[in-house]
Design brief:
2 copies of one chain form a homodimer. Chain A is an alpha+beta fold. In chain A, 45% of the residues lie in helices and 30% in strands. Chain A has a 5-stranded antiparallel β-sheet with strand order 2-1-5-4-3, with helices on both faces. In chain A, α1 runs antiparallel to α3. The first copy, chain A, is globular. The interface between A and B is medium-sized, with 33 and 33 residues. β3 of chain A pairs antiparallel with β3 of chain B.
Chain lengths: 120, 120
Amino acid sequence: MKADMLTSVLNELNGTSADIEASGVISTDGLMMASVLPAGMDEDRVGAMSAAMLSLGDRTAQELNRGQLEQVLIKGRHGYVLMTYAGEEAVLTVLAKPNAKLGLIFLDVKRAAESIAEML
Amino acid sequence: MKADMLTSVLNELNGTSADIEASGVISTDGLMMASVLPAGMDEDRVGAMSAAMLSLGDRTAQELNRGQLEQVLIKGRHGYVLMTYAGEEAVLTVLAKPNAKLGLIFLDVKRAAESIAEML
């Protein structure tokens, strides 16, 4: 039931913008809780990379006096990865296209992360 | 001489916005090439965390089909860390305040990274 509710938030999120290619909710230890990914994208790989980036992001934020980590954004030539804490136990990871309007995506992702945090 | 030129680009960058607290140019293996940091912020720590984040960011961008890594942004409760490739050998790392106007910072950092890439 909880997985269905999470999946429904992710479906809604992916539907808000054609620039969002995939999304997933991942426990902070890297296990997938729900995902809406395109065919051919491996759930375990998204989970593992999200957990690793957040762990190092946490440490970087601490070492450089940025306070508690909230988000990590990776920009590659072919698109973005945006990881956002949804409460303290989970992370919302979103993959977006290279020309995505970041301001809109930040807003939609923030709302989705708040919904997810309330469900968990 | 090259260090002076780099430092001058960093001074100019830090001067464009009161939201930019610190900046540094770091070789991709984590050694500081030039920096304009506030008192009490350790150069080696900035270099080491930048190199570690970029290395994992590179791998994440590859694994999740985002193409070649261009930037990593970390958002903490007390501010941002923005790492941007300046050519292939160096990285421009900027620390910014929590309420920074990201659009302006992205623009100024992009220009500074281009100047730095030309110098190296």
